[in-house]
Design a protein that fits this description.
The protein is mainly beta. Helix content is 7%, strand content 50%.
Length: 203
């Protein structure tokens, strides 16, 4: 479930997704009714969007990567590059610090000189007790905090402890945030490659 909250409106979107490694993903909107059947397909660093109402498929050009994904505080670029942090950034251990009641490692991510990235710096806090993320801060090239991600509600899901609620706070717009709530997750399932195909996208 994705809850998008702004000072003007709020909306709730239900979805289902399949992920194979970090390179392939298919996201299908289940509700609201007017958006049901819309899909996003990710293969590597490329994204395609399928709109059910018009039965059209569009590859997202680079100019659209910084646009909001489905009205949320995530961008299309986030979906494309989420798996490339280790490749695109130099990681540096900073210190140990508490987030809430949990002691965490704070890691600084600085972009490599030629990396095609948006962020000037990222800070990650990793919980020592279970290696789950606790907090992430994203800064632009001028050192301004743009957004914050909070990971809460750690639950045992299909044999793993994971944060079941992700909250993305827009630090540039007061009162704007997006919440992702994982209702159910299945790990280590065989997913046929045909799921990540244009035929499935337009099915």
């Amino acid at each position: 479930t994705m809850n998008v909250v702004t000072t003007e409106f709020s909306r709730t979107v239900k979805m289902k997704s399949w992920n194979k490694g970090n390179d392939k993903a298919l996201i299908v909107i289940l509700s609201p009714a007017k958006e049901a059947g819309n899909k996003t397909l990710k293969i590597g660093r490329e994204l395609w969007s399928y709109l059910k109402a018009t039965e059209t498929t569009m590859k997202l050009p680079p100019s659209m990567l910084l646009m909001s994904w489905n009205g949320s505080d995530l961008t299309n670029d986030d979906l494309v590059r989420e798996s490339d942090l280790v490749d695109d950034y130099d990681l540096k251990y900073m210190l140990e610090e508490k987030i809430g009641d949990q002691l965490c490692w704070k890691i600084e991510l600085t972009p490599k000189p030629e990396a095609p990235v948006v962020w000037g710096k990222i800070y990650y806090w990793i919980r020592k007790i279970d290696l789950n993320p606790a907090l992430t801060q994203y800064y632009d090239e001028k050192g301004k905090l743009i957004r914050t991600m909070k990971f809460t509600d750690i639950k045992m899901v299909d044999g793993r402890n994971i944060p079941s609620r992700w909250t993305i706070v827009n630090n540039l717009k007061a009162g704007h945030y997006t919440e992702f709530i994982y209702e159910d997750v299945k790990f280590n399932r065989e997913i046929p490659d045909k799921i990540f195909s244009f035929r499935e996208l337009e099915k």
